[in-house]
Specification:
The complex is a heterodimer of chains A (115) and B (110). Chain A has 115 residues and is an all-beta fold. In chain A, 0% of the residues lie in helices and 45% in strands. Helices cover 0% and strands 47% of the residues of chain B. In chain B, the strands form 2 sheets. A 5-stranded mixed β-sheet of chain B has the order 1-9-8-3-4, with no helix packed on it. Chain B starts with 8 loop residues before the first strand and ends with a strand. Classes of the chains: A mainly beta (115), B mainly beta (110).
Chain lengths: 115, 110
């Protein structure tokens, strides 16, 4: 696609519910990242996928968070039993490591509100 | 990955030149310096990248001294639309985990 696509753009859920956030990276980009950004804060690294390698999950804040990437393309971030502190914007980015700059391309984000 | 330090916030006025300095004392030989810009309610976007000396594009200039332990992003003649958070990142272009710091929140006044 033309850019990184994320859905839903907004999600309101009740505490305790599970949510799934989707990221469709730029075609051909082998690296995919998830970040979380709370209001007024910087970007918090969550997880990184590169090709068929095992993902780097070191940023996931708890075992309620998980992510997968199917077929080296679309990725889904799942948050189980959501808590109010999970409310944030979840940003996905992709890049092509073979490129000169290794530039990250971000989606518009999925804003999650847990009531 | 090299840690970076940059001011939390800066204020300036329309038409002024703004310089944001980033310190990265532990930069490695293979590391590049990259700056991103983030507007409210949007994801960050790439502004400029450099390895040494000076790089200029249509948006900004990046000045890197010989020791590469710091870098300065220069925005010429800023406008209100340059109000954003600016992030300085240091790393190899193939680096896996990419960590963003807190960034510099730039506010431009009329």
């Amino acid at each position: 696609g033309a850019g990184v696509s994320q859905s839903p753009s907004n999600k309101v859920t009740e505490k305790g519910k599970d949510v799934e956030l989707r990221c469709d990276p730029i075609s051909g980009h082998t690296a995919l990242y998830w970040y979380r950004q709370s209001l007024g804060q910087g970007l918090e690294f969550l997880i990184y996928f590169q090709g068929n390698s095992a993902p780097d999950k070191s940023g996931l804040p708890s075992d309620r968070f998980s992510a997968e990437r199917t077929g080296g393309s679309v990725s889904t971030l799942t948050i189980q039993r959501t808590q109010q502190e999970d409310s944030a914007v979840y940003l996905c980015a992709s890049r092509q490591l073979a490129g000169r700059t290794g530039e990250l391309f971000f989606g518009e984000g999925s804003r999650l509100t847990v009531l | 990955l090299a840690k970076t330090t940059q001011p939390i916030s800066m204020d300036s006025y329309e038409g002024q030149e703004v310089n944001i300095t980033c310190s990265h004392n532990n930069i490695a030989t293979n590391d590049y310096i990259t700056w991103y810009q983030q507007f409210p309610s949007q994801g960050p976007r790439f502004i400029i990248q450099g390895y040494k000396t000076k790089v200029t594009n249509e948006v900004a200039s990046l000045f890197i001294p010989a020791d590469r332990k710091s870098s300065t992003l220069s925005l010429p003649r800023v406008s209100l639309s340059d109000t954003a958070v600016y992030y300085c990142l240091v790393g190899d272009s193939s680096a896996s985990k990419i960590i963003f710091g807190s960034g510099t929140r730039l506010s431009i006044r009329p």
